[in-house]
Amino acid sequence: MSILIKNIKELIQVREPGIRMVAGEHMKVLPKIDNAYIFIDHDTIVDFGLMENASGLTADTEIDAMGSVVLPCWCDSHTHTVYAGNRIDEFVDRLNGLTYQEIAAKGGGILNSAKKLESTKEDQLYQEAVARIKNLMALGTGAIEIKSGYGLTTDSELKMLRVIKRIKRDLSLKVIPTFLGAHAVPEAYADNKNAYVDLIIKDMMPAIQKDRLAKYIDVFCEKGYFGLEATDSILEAAKTFGLIPKIHVNQFNAFGGVALAVKHNALSVDHLEELLPEDIEALKGSRTIPVALPGCSLFLDIPYTPGRELIDSGLPLALASDFNPGSAPSGNMNLIVSLACIKMKLTPEEAINAATLNGAYAMGIEQQYGSITRGKRANIIISKAVSSYYELPYSFGSNLIDKVMINGEFIKKPQDNS
Ligand code: NIG
Ligand code: FE
Description:
Layout: E1 2-12, E2 32-41, E3 44-50, E4 61-64, E5 68-72, E6 74-76, H1 88-95, H2 100-105, H3 110-118, H4 122-138, E7 141-147, H5 154-170, E8 174-182, H6 193-210, E9 216-221, H7 228-240, E10 244-249, H8 257-263, E11 268-271, H9 277-283, E12 289-292, H10 294-300, H11 307-312, E13 318-319, H12 333-344, H13 348-355, H14 357-361, E14 380-385, H15 391-394, E15 401-406, E16 409-410
Parallel strand pairs: 1-4, 1-5, 6-7, 7-8, 8-9, 9-10, 10-11, 11-12, 12-13
Antiparallel strand pairs: 1-2, 2-3, 5-14, 14-15, 15-16
Helix pairs in contact: 4-5, 5-6, 6-7, 8-9, 12-13
The structure holds N-(iminomethyl)-L-glutamic acid (NIG) and fe (iii) ion.
């Protein structure tokens, strides 16, 4: 089954094979072809170029994309999309003056989600997550990382990871599973955090490895959660189990977590709303990519990650949604791209690079996703008629997506998102 999309106003993020991510000055460049075509065979991008060179091409299906921008699907490298229920009451508590930390201290926050998850059947959890993810696919997300971390017991963490595995099997988007047992210290271990770290290392990790349920390991490295010593022990042990670190760090406090992540050769460091000069120095020359989560900054009304500073220091940057019930209850990557431009002062080129190719790198899937490249997966967004790709971040909150193709197939819209 072949598909030819013709008369594309702007085909953006076109790359030659082999480029893994873009950093610093290179993030300002978003290669594009005006008046273009793209040719797809089954699940693969086979060819693209100028319309004037498409005259001899025919396909099983031909689509006229007149007036549209075509770009690769969003690659959302940091989400907590599997959860039970919601935390709407905490949202209202915050509107009434409590902080995220105060809510957590009185048993809300992550522990509240863990309680809800414990009493939710695996099937129900799966159904809730699938409904959320189908909405995200209609909004252009073609690859997603999903973390555990609302289990906090071996049984419940495994339950979450099994749900993620099922989603990976059943849905057409790319799913990357991450184990986040170290998301919060459960009440039962409040006076003995080390025993919980032991449980993670000696009980959870072997069980996860046995059923190959996760590719990455995450830790919420933060005051009141897991400090440097606990994070170090968990990441050290993770090596034995072949789990690569991608960690939550510097959300509320900066105290050396970034350097620790780099020491462990982390693939990404995520949040960084608080950033010290030494954090930037630690990242230079490493393979670790910083990931900004502007949806969390908006929702919690906390500082935005200094993305400008990171890019101007020559570093790469990825953008992700952090979709979760407590600090970022939206997985809409279109909004994330707008926020990065409006609040973090990224250019449209930088924001789109950060949400596509660099997002793919932050999941270790940049060989197959994140750009319009011959041989990569056919994951593409076709916009409605727009004046240029600048309109994507400009028209924040609007849905400018006409069609989404994932793995070579147009997805059905689960609801009217217009
Ligand atoms: O990335 N910071 C830690 N984890 C999530 C929040 C999880 C929650 O509040 O449920 C985050 O913001
Ligand atoms: Fe998160």
